Amino acid sequence: AQTVTQSQPEMSVQEAETVTLSCTYDTSESDYYLFWYKQPPSRQMILVIRQEAYKQQNATENRFSVNFQKAAKSFSLKISDSQLGDAAMYFCAYRTTYSGAGSYQLTFGKGTKLSVIP
Amino acid sequence: AAGVIQSPRHLIKEKRETATLKCYPIPRHDTVYWYQQGPGQDPQFLISFYEKMQSDKGSIPDRFSAQQFSDYHSELNMSSLELGDSALYFCASSLGYQGYEQYFGPGTRLTVT
């Protein structure tokens, strides 16, 4: 079974600064998807960014980018020019692409709570 | 754009009562996932459906059951509620069995007293 580990329960960043959230995962599969979800105080789960394992290029979405190191099974999220609205819980998630799987549910890490200091 | 709809948004029940949570996926989405998120926890997969058939089960108690209907909406039925069932229940939908992007609904907050 796949596991996802987020080793930073809490992080803080000064507004307009850059912060990196860490995520590692364990899998024996060669192809899969990785995601970062944001959960603000409203508790809505919002997809921030996704990465296909077969792609070597790191995904980028505006101020959000990832550092995907497949061999190291590492998938960190970098938030540039942090804004007050970035304050939230961030979850790293894994999804198999194996067609023999029962379904394609997400396996989440425990989350990192990000605070943004004005 | 239309999003996933969940109802009710909040639900308060007493122990041993039953509860039904509903999920209306994004139009044309045929796959539904249910997740449970306890206080301070990450979401845990409960059950999923594809084309009205159950596709997988996760850590779903036997007291819970679910189904997907012909219009693709899904219902999660919870009986003999326990205090530990208090959680946020998410429904997510995707297009196609292998649709890699799951769109989450706002969740139903269930409180068992």
Write the layout of secondary structure elements.
The complex is a heterodimer of chains A (118) and B (113).
Chain A: E1 3-5, E2 10-14, E3 19-21, E4 24-26, E5 32-39, E6 46-52, E7 60-61, E8 64-69, E9 74-79, E10 88-96, E11 107-108, E12 112-117
Chain B: E1 5-7, E2 10-13, E3 19-24, E4 31-37, E5 44-50, E6 53-57, E7 64-68, E8 74-78, E9 87-94, E10 103-104, E11 108-112
Parallel strand pairs in B: 2-11
Antiparallel strand pairs in B: 1-3, 3-8, 4-5, 4-9, 5-6, 7-8, 9-10, 9-11
Oligomer: heterodimer
Order of helices and strands of chain B: EEEEEEEEEEE
Strand content of chain A: over 45%
What does the average pLDDT of chain A come to? 93
Unreliable stretches of chain A (pLDDT < 50, length at least 5) are none
Helix content percent band of chain B: under 10%
Which sheet architecture does the biggest sheet of chain B show?
A: 7 strands, mixed
Most strands sheet of chain A: 6 strands, mixed
Structural class of chain B: mainly beta
> Count of helices of chain A?
0
Mean pLDDT of chain B: 93
| Rg calculated over all Cα atoms of chain A | 14 Å
Describe the structure.
The complex is a heterodimer of chains A (118) and B (113). Chain A is an all-beta fold and 118 residues long. In chain A, 0% of the residues lie in helices and 51% in strands. Chain A contains no helices and twelve strands. In chain A, the strands form three sheets. In chain A, strands 2, 5, 6, 10, 11 and 12 form a six-stranded mixed sheet that branches. A four-stranded antiparallel sheet of chain A has the order 3-9-8-7, with no helix packed on it. A two-stranded antiparallel sheet of chain A has the order 1-4. The radius of gyration of chain A is 14 Å and the shape is globular. Chain A starts with a strand and ends with a strand. The mean pLDDT of chain A is 93. Chain B has 113 residues and is mostly beta strands. Helices cover 0% and strands 50% of the residues of chain B. Chain B has no helices and eleven strands. Chain B has strands at 5-7, 10-13, 19-24, 31-37, 44-50, 53-57, 64-68, 74-78, 87-94, 103-104, 108-112. In chain B, strands 2, 4, 5, 6, 9, 10 and 11 form a seven-stranded mixed sheet that branches. In chain B, strand 7 and strand 8 (74-78) form a beta hairpin. Chain B is globular, with a radius of gyration of 13 Å. The model of chain B has no long low-confidence stretch (mean pLDDT 93). Classes of the chains: A mainly beta (118), B mainly beta (113). The interface between A and B is medium-sized, with 25 and 30 residues.
